[in-house]
Amino acid sequence: MRYYQIAPTITIHGPKDQLTYHHQSALPVGGLVTIPLGKKQAAGVILKEVAKPNFATRPVGQLIETRPLPAHLLQAALWMSRYYIAPLSSCFQTILPKGLHKTRRQIKLADTSNLINRTSFVLNSQQEAAVKTILKNSGGTTLLRGITGSGKTQVYVEVMKRTVETGRSGIVLVPEIALTAQLKSQIESSLPGAIITHSSMTEGQRHLIWRQILHSKKPVVVIGPRSALFSPITNLGLVVIDECHEPSYKQENQPRYLALRVARIITESAGARLILGSATPSVTESYLAEATAQPVALLNRPAIADALPAQISLVDIRKKDEFRRHRFLSDKLLSSIEASLGEGRQSLVFHNRRGSAPLTICQDCGWTAVCPSCQLPMTLHVDKHQLVCHICGRRLDVPASCPVCHQPQLVHRGIGTKLIADELAKLFPSAKLARFDADTAAVERLHTNYQDIYDGKFNIIIGTQMVAKGLDLPLLGSVGVVQADSGLNLPDYQANERVFQLVYQVCGRVGRLARPSSVIIQTYHPEHPSILYGSRQDYDAFYQWELPRRRQDYFPPFCYLAKLTCAYSRENQAVAASRALADGLKQRFNNQMLVLGPAPSFYEKLGGRFRWQLILKSSKRSIIQEACRELVNNSRWTVDPDPAHLL
């Protein structure tokens, strides 16, 4: 009889997340098996073989898959559980597909190959140098920093091609599902048969793709958002994280992992290379690359030698003479759209707020429509004639009169993507418009309509930040930003950086080809460094400006952070609990850790619960983790030892 330590993939109540079972024959470490758990059967992962325990054990059921999970995924799950202080079961739920025990009928997956016409591409000298730098770093991380349009994708393709030639497989992560089809088309000529996986697929589709990867006997290339990092590749040789600065690589649910950090663990375990690619890598990543002598490959000129830089204009929203034709779309922006339409080219209009109007207010008594659960302003959606809370999703009918003073003087203020689309439809009635944001119906989303956008079937594209992430549209002639500085005043140490990255990336959607193009940036703060350096696409200047501010305020990369948030139905309970924890942490860790707060969270009330938070700072990661472990079994507290933001 043999005995095995097995981790159930469903949450179990108790101090242990690993249980001992027995089986008559040898089973592989990493094997997926069925196990009895109470009166039910559950899936489990074999972690190791152990000696016979001094207590009775239950038998293992059957193997779910004949092939075990790769060792690097086992190591990743165990590391995530320790580092992010998360139940091991939640880590395996993240790594494994749903419905492991189900028998799936074979279905034909959509073929997204050859969407883009690509001529054979010859690497320029900078790209060749970047490839050599990456290949020389045989088992580590390389930061690939290249301006927009410099051909980072071709570097990825070349390194991936050489990886596959050695018999090893690779993964390419993208920040948005919409970019999966674009990237597959770009690499199809060199690496045919790349596999796409993402959350918009059905449970059955994702399970079948997962099994295809697990049982593949040939090298595979997998493309997808952050979840693709856990593809069960047996002989992993390369992981690429494109647009590595994007916050979408952080998971906000348990386990709250950052894909960049987990990718380092996976590639170290597998002996694989890791490429972090971006035109605007985070200040922290750039600083760490310098401090640790990590290889950095630079691409500072366009891949197409005769590409014409875009003409970039800043429009001061405070100057009303810039808005003679429309109240929030400047004359320059409208003229640039007209010019693009006249040339048969496309325009992209970006605004990072969805809906029609973010504020509904009574002009008589000042009543404001707020969510009953979250106490936050509800956004008007004219097309559905509803007020929607963008935090909890609650929907209410728009009142005909004020519910307090009963007067009919309700006004809707602010700008959202739906309002922008409606106004542009009135101004350009013959143009075909497409809007892409979180409210867009599934059949109308960006990744399902990418081919039509690429082919120029839409004249004007309106959207939130998803349209600013790496899209390559050859027919794009003009880009407009309705309000570039909307994020500058957020109470987060990365607010300046986020605005800079967004402006830089939006400007980079044009200026890639040998055609004139324009960018119009509307802002209340045209003199702000984030706006100035972003519009100039000057990463080094922004980095040199931002880094001393981080050092002075003691924020990453000069410390480690953790965010602890409690939630109670009564505010005085949340205040008392957070104060008690803050006092205890200050006494215990004294000079080793700085405790900020307690203070109300940015979203102070969610789902009817009051939320208060503490921010922990320390120069030692071990101190942060030790403090966080005190709350492992406390359901009132949410622990994020690696927060992407402080909101």
TrEMBL record:
Q: Report the record's Gene Ontology biological process terms.
A: DNA recombination; DNA replication initiation; DNA replication, synthesis of primer; double-strand break repair
Q: Does the keyword Membrane apply?
A: no
Q: How is the cofactor bound?
A: Binds 2 zinc ions per subunit.
Q: Which PROSITE patterns match?
A: HELICASE_ATP_BIND_1
EC category: isomerase
Q: Which family does it belong to?
A: Belongs to the helicase family. PriA subfamily.
Q: What does this protein do?
A: Initiates the restart of stalled replication forks, which reloads the replicative helicase on sites other than the origin of replication. Recognizes and binds to abandoned replication forks and remodels them to uncover a helicase loading site. Promotes assembly of the primosome at these replication forks.
The record's listing under HAMAP family reads: PriA
Q: Can you name this protein?
A: Replication restart protein PriA
Species of the source: Candidatus Chaera renei
Gene designation: priA
